[in-house]
């Protein structure tokens, strides 16, 4: 009898407190779970839903000036001189590259041709008739097997090259002959910028390095926080006045005195928890109008930062890793889901949003991603990862026409000397 009474009491106790979420035992369960350090949320993607905004608003672009500047240390190409209609006029051929990585590559544009490289690291100079002027390779057999990826900069006399296998060197643009060659402790993962007698690049350890342009000797270096993971995203640099401003793989933006290598200011854009997840972060190139630095990332953040102080002017919720463009009083970018954003430069207010993928197949639309864009006159030329170019009127925001360039990945578009260039694997196509 006693056993029966004891069993009934136990059942009543458990029934009254154990399985009721409002009981004192469980009411702090969420708080307790959050405090357990061994529990980590791996994926926390807050995808911002975007829709068109003021799509019919007309922009007044009557006062914009076009340029044909090829080298820009502030990365702002603005509106380039190009009024063509994508008529194919030339084709520069090279050996296909194994790992295209979205063809995040850029040729050196010359008045009488261009310079590019192939899958074994051979540097090729072409004339305007697409004929090879010279072809040089400064890699050993073992280095060629690593499929070196080359980044270029030039001062119209010498070509500076850094690569992803820790090599950097200089060659004569006219002859292709080697001036000097050096090895860095780590591979490079950035643009190159030349300023007077120095050039600058960032390596995979998030170290900004300054080199002498004449012999390749290192003038100074500035290490920043290491992410401990390798990111495919390319770091970016700009030069303004006496500052080198650069991004690293964990989202820090740092301004450095160009002569001493000392930090002027530094702005972290990501939390400490992002340090070991840097492979997920993709930041656009830095762009400046001389007063502010503009950039965005794939974490729904579009920044404007004061050049002199590093103070944040504004942050807007735009998800994009494409290079923005500054024209007059507006900043333009395209989000990763294909929306064109027109933003006020001074205050960050969004003026207009247009869907540029509206004509894409609905079933395939989720897999279509923008690669990059350029402004030619008053039109925007957007390349997509399915080999398509979308031509858009900036004034009205409507799609003018769509051109199929390739069945596979293509690069961002480049405009030079009133022509538009697009890289597909194996060739560089020129449109007039």
SSE inventory with pairings:
Elements: H1 2-17, H2 29-34, E1 79-80, E2 88-93, E3 108-110, E4 113-117, E5 123-127, E6 132-136, H3 141-144, E7 150-154, E8 158-163, E9 167-172, E10 178-183, E11 193-195, E12 198-202, E13 207-212, E14 218-223, E15 237-240, E16 243-247, E17 252-257, E18 263-268, E19 287-288, E20 292-297, E21 301-306, E22 312-316, E23 325-327, E24 330-334, E25 339-344, E26 350-355, E27 370-376, E28 379-384, E29 388-393, E30 399-404, E31 414-416, E32 419-424, E33 427-431
| Alpha carbon gyration radius | 26 Å
The secondary-structure class comes to mainly beta
What is the rounded distance between the termini? 99 Å
> How helical, in percent, are the residues?
under 10%
* DSSP, total strands: 33
* Biggest sheet record: 5 strands, mixed
- The protein's oligomeric status is single chain
- Measured by DSSP, the beta-strand proportion falls in 35-45%
Going across the biggest sheet, name each strand in turn: 1-27-28-29-30
Overall 3D form? globular
Low-confidence region ranges: 1-6, 8-45
How confident overall, as mean pLDDT?
87
Helix count, per DSSP?
3
